[in-house]
Amino acid sequence: MKLTRFFAALAAATALTAAASAQAREYSVSTVLSDAFPWGQAAQKWADLVNERSEGRITLRVYPNAQLVAGDQTKEFSAMRSGLIDMAVGSTINWSPQVPELNLFSLPFLMQNSADLDAITGGKPGEMAFAAIDKRGIVPLAWGENGFRELSNSVRPIQTPADLAGLKIRVVGSPLFQDTFTALGANPTQMSWADAKPALTTGAVDGQENPLSVFDVARIDQVGQKHLTLWHYMADPLIFAVNQRVWKGLPEADRELLRQAAIDAGKWEIELSRSLEAKRLDDIRARGVEVAELTDAQRQAFSDATASVREQWTPKIGEELVEAARQAIAQP
Ligand code: X2X
Questions:
Q1: Coil, helix or strand at residue 97
Q2: Residue 5 — very low, low, confident or very high, per pLDDT cuts 50/70/90?
Q3: The model's pTM
Q4: Is ligand 1 within 6 A of the CB of residue 273?
Q5: Which residue has the CA at smallest separation from atom 4 of ligand 1?
Q6: Of 211, 225, 284, 293, which residue is least crowded by CB atoms under 10 Å?
Q7: Taking all residues of the chain, what is their mean pLDDT, rounded to a whole number?
Q8: Which residues have a Cβ under 8 Å from the Cβ of 31 and sit 6 or more positions away?
Q9: Is the pLDDT at 13 greater than 80, yes or no?
Q10: What CA–CA distances, in Å, run from 87 to 81, 219, 275?
């Protein structure tokens, strides 16, 4: 009797294990930055939450440094759409060549601060941006954050557009950036993040723009970037997203699990990232970087100098979306 029960239990356990392993799945998740940065930590948090909540049934394997697209970060969205990559935590900048609506976040001096950014991502314009991604065969799940992008260079302090004249600035391979820095009188050069640090090291370029977290963790001060201007000219949110075929192949309960874990990981990362900003700035200053903070009037001069970029890019992004963003920002 006892033995029969033992065998029944064993059979049941074996069946359970078989069912679990039959369902066990692994998916690739692409990121540009590793888990030394908030960006990579966001993806790892997502993976950890999914692993925990699925009791090990679903594994998200994070591939940093845009390695699944050989470092070519502006190809990430296409690779995910074609199924080469299952999922990604990606920047709006890098996906904007395929999803023009995402250029909204790169419009220079549209947003002033995190409250403006949150008004966009958390409101109607955020929904419109997600709809634009969905329309192109990718399922967006949640927002994260790379951060407000600040300007650094090796040549001189920058407080006015004239100070930028002729400086070679590395920008991401997204056309809007070419226009912004050209309007400011600089000499923009497009290259991937993988190529940026070597180019700064050799002096092939004079400057770059990235969030403080990237400047801090990548030790951009060590490659001669002694001048930093806090101009908060734009911010790139991160988006947690899944290839549509992968999504459709998942049971409803797993979709919900993935979505909720992405929302939780994104919220966690945004808070973490923002809570570290002040300390990062202190550390950067302590390393001898000269930090310029702009007055409202100084910032306005940069905004005025890039008005043509906002004008020229608004129809490409969509008048309705840009207007929705302006309204969301203006709301008290
Ligand atoms: O390439 C960059 O500057 C980075 C790392 O911030 C992005 O991928 C947008």
A1: coil
A2: low
A3: 0.93
A4: no
A5: 193
A6: 293
A7: 95
A8: 39, 40, 42, 43, 62, 63, 64, 65, 66, 88, 89, 90
A9: no
A10: 9, 29, 27
Instruction: Compute the distance from residue 236 Cα to the ligand 1 centre, in Å.
Output: 9
Res 23: pLDDT: 73
Chain mean position to CA 125: 17
92 lines ligand 1 (CB under 6 A): no
Summarize pLDDT for 97-108 with one digit per residue, the tens.
Answer: 999 999 999 999
Determine the atom of ligand 1 nearest the C-alpha atom of 39: 5
| Ligand 1, atom 6, residue with closest C-alpha | 210
CB 125, CB 317: distance < 8 Å: no
Which residue's CA lies nearest to atom 2 of ligand 1?
Answer: 193
Indicate if the pLDDT at residue 326 is higher than 90.
yes
CA neighbor of 246 nearest in space, from 21, 9, 30: 30
The total number of residues shown for the chain amounts to 332
CB of 172 within 6 A of ligand 1: the answer is yes
Q: Delineate the domains of the chain, giving CATH numbers in brackets.
A: 25-330 (3.40.190.170)
Measure 7 CA to ligand 1 centroid, in angstroms: 57
